[in-house]
Amino acid sequence: MRPLTMVGNWKMHGSLSANQAFLQELLAAPDLGKKPGRFALCVPYPYLAQVSQLLAHSPVVLGAQDISDHSHGAYTGEVSGQMLKEFGTRYVIVGHSERRAYHHETDDCVARKAKAALLNGITPIICVGETESERDAGQTLPVVRRQLQAVLDLLQNKIADCLIAYEPIWAIGTGRVASPHEAQDVHRELRLQLAKFDADAASKVAILYGGSLKPDNAKEMLAMPDIDGGLVGGASLVAKDFLALCAIDQ
Ligand code: PGA
Questions:
Q1: What is the CATH number of the domain that holds 50?
Q2: Is the alpha carbon torsion for 145, 148, 150, 155 positive or negative?
Q3: How far, in Å, is the centroid of ligand 1 from the Cα of 74?
Q4: Range of the domain at 208
């Protein structure tokens, strides 16, 4: 059985005071950490130090939202895995659709970022997902398979140390959630693709769903056999919602 994995993606939200208030509320919750599971918050770079300190000794660990595919050097604006590691970062999102769309990240670049994370002992959360027009054209499975294959080709059996997140782009931030069966079909395909590569990894790797996941729709989603958790945007900005997601029985 794969443990529930719930990861918040704050995107470009937060402030020193708002983060402090959020984490105070989150960490005061008596039930947090009572259930087994993996919980993380992926915060903007400038807040890594603050959130790392506030999360110390809590069941919630620190994550980042991007990583450079280079180790160091003349890459203005980039942040390396080693730097992330210094702040205690345990997870990093790679290939989020917003980075693929606005920063022109290719499948190969995403794979290299996942590799850079692993080299630094950070677990990459590799995002895949189709646009609405790809979905309408019946291209969902070819698109997500292509995105995953690029990572498999580069990482080989190291895929066992990664997480995958299926995030249909049309469901992100829109309030339109994929139906649990629709999402399950994609998750099952991704797991089959992993299994062709490495059966052991396929049974271990958590595949998260992301896209308008909220406390009121997550239970049904997480009841699906290949949906192991969530990558949560909007609902991870409200402490009581994130707590409710972390407390869901799978
Ligand atoms: P959302 O974002 O939960 O606000 O739809 C999910 C994500 O982009 O990771």
A1: 3.20.20.70
A2: negative
A3: 32
A4: 5-246
